[in-house]
């Protein structure tokens, strides 16, 4: 263990069923979800790549540390040879690889192992459902999961494009689906409540979640050490259906674990609090997911209604903030029994921070930091409702992904820097903040 160093069922069967009445660890403590390293099946990956080895986690020193030490405060740094495209499935196909980021998709931050997690695609943009991580210490990308059998980097089998099971959130495990019309809803999709019927579930691969636009529907919990997909929308290939299925990726076993369904199926924004509980904002509703208990709790039915937003939690005061353009900020007081919602009017911005900006909270600065793109940033003191705009020095990360940054801009608490990935064909950048907030 690494040390943590951080300050086929026939149609008749279905028809019968239808008609019948988880702060980081320290020292040598095991990380959440650390059940030991479990080897996957031997042999090369399906596309001829290396075997993917699970890990138990932990934060290690690496070449990034010297780079950060040499950076002036307030500066940006481009990390060389850090394009995610280098680990996309083979044969390499530019657009589906790029769409993992640009097709309304985001990311999360594994703060226990100091790495950015990227998962996305969906609609007819990308069928890819791989888990990708960028390890900050070694400055390397890793692809943790392979595509479904028969799918390659530039091709899919016809059954993968069968839209009927998009509502179940998984790719098929069979060459063709056997689903009677009685099992379909008015739009031609399997009804959500039938997805777990054995006649349907036996035709699906529980280790192959279906690619989707992720918006803010993905998060990481320190309580379990897992990366979560909190339901899906904009699913491959039709993009007109979604699934409430929650999936947690366990890095210690390199396998997906089923979670309790999200009670809200929509485009969402989410963030983790200091306990590792995941807070999800859907259509004006706030829900809390406890990943240890695997339970959802409904809160505050009349709240924020937008979803093209960055979301983060002030871990000192336990306040959830959602930022879209920045002139107003939606907040939830998570310590209050009623989880009070407020719309805060702010000052200090000369121009909006853009739709779906990156948003992260730094306990060192005690500020929310929004990232609209390029070298520009904005710090928010929520206590005074005032933004301070900054332009970082050094390298220029360039424009953000056209459909939003979402969770691909994140704060590394282990190294006190911010990390951003704007494109699979551009390098990763980091920003070193000042010692104190301006």
Query: Sheet bearing the most strands, described?
Result: 5 strands, mixed
Helix proportion range: under 10%
Query: What is the highest CATH level, the class?
Result: Mainly Beta
Count of individual helical segments = 4
CATH architecture: 6 Propeller
Write down the Rg: 21 Å
The CATH homologous superfamily is named: Kelch-type beta propeller
Assign the structural class, choosing from mainly alpha, mainly beta, alpha/beta, alpha+beta, or little secondary structure: mainly beta
CATH third-tier fold name: Neuraminidase
Low-confidence sequence ranges: 1-30, 33-50
Instruction: Describe the strand arrangement of the main beta sheet, using strand numbers.
Output: 25-1-28-27-26
Signal peptide: 1-22
InterPro entries: Kelch-typ_b-propeller (IPR015915)
Organism: Corallococcus sicarius
Protein name: Galactose oxidase
Account of the 3D structure:
Keywords: Signal. The chain is mainly beta. The protein has one domain (11-432): 6 Propeller (Neuraminidase), CATH 2.120.10. It is built from four helices and 28 strands. The strands form seven sheets. It has a five-stranded mixed sheet with strand order 25-1-28-27-26, with no helix packed on it. Strands 8, 9, 10, 11 and 12 form a five-stranded antiparallel sheet that branches. Strands 2-3-4-5 form a four-stranded antiparallel sheet, with no helix packed on it. It is globular. It starts with 10 loop residues before the first helix and ends in a 6-residue tail after the last strand.
């Amino acid at each position: 263990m690494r040390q943590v160093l951080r300050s086929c069922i026939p149609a008749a069967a279905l028809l019968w069923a239808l008609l019948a009445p988880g702060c980081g660890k320290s020292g040598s403590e095991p990380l959440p979800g650390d059940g030991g390293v479990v080897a996957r099946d031997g042999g090369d990956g399906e596309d001829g790549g290396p075997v993917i080895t699970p890990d138990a986690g932990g934060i290690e020193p690496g070449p990034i540390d010297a780079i950060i030490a040499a950076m002036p405060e307030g500066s940006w740094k481009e990390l060389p040879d850090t394009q995610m495209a280098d680990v996309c499935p083979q044969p390499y196909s530019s657009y589906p690889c790029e769409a993992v980021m640009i097709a309304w998709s985001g990311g999360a931050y594994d703060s226990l192992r100091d790495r950015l997690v990227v998962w996305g695609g969906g609609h007819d943009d990308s069928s890819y459902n791989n888990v990708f991580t960028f390890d900050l210490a070694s400055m390397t990308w890793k692809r943790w999961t392979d595509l479904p059998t028969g799918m390659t980097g530039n091709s899919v089998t016809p059954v993968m494009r069968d839209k009927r099971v998009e509502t179940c959130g998984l790719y098929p495990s069979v060459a063709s689906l056997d689903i009677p019309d009685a099992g379909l809803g008015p739009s031609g999709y399997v009804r959500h409540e039938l997805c777990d019927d054995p006649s349907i579930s036996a035709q699906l691969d529980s280790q192959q979640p279906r690619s989707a636009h992720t918006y803010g529907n993905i998060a990481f919990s320190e309580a379990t050490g897992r990366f979560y997909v909190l339901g899906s929308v904009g699913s491959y290939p039709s993009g007109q259906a979604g699934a409430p299925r929650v999936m947690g990726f366990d890095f210690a076993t390199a396998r997906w674990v089923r979670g309790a369904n999200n009670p809200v199926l929509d485009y969402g924004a989410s963030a983790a609090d200091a306990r590792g509980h995941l807070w999800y904002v859907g259509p004006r509703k706030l829900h809390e997911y406890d990943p240890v208990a695997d339970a959802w709790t409904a809160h505050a039915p009349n709240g924020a209604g937008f979803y093209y937003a960055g979301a983060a939690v002030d871990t000192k005061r336990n306040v959830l903030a959602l930022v879209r353009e920045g002139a107003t900020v939606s907040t939830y007081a998570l310590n209050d029994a009623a989880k009070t919602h407020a719309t805060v009017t702010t000052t200090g911005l000369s121009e909006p921070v853009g739709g779906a900006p990156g948003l992260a909270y730094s306990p060192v600065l005690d500020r929310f930091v929004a990232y609209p793109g390029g070298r520009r940033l904005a710090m928010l003191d929520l206590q005074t409702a005032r933004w301070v705009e900054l332009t970082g020095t050094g390298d220029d990360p360039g424009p953000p992904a056209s459909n939003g940054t979402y969770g691909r801009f994140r704060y590394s608490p282990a190294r006190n820097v911010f990390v951003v990935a704007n494109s699979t064909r551009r390098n990763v950048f980091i920003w070193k903040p000042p010692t104190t907030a301006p």
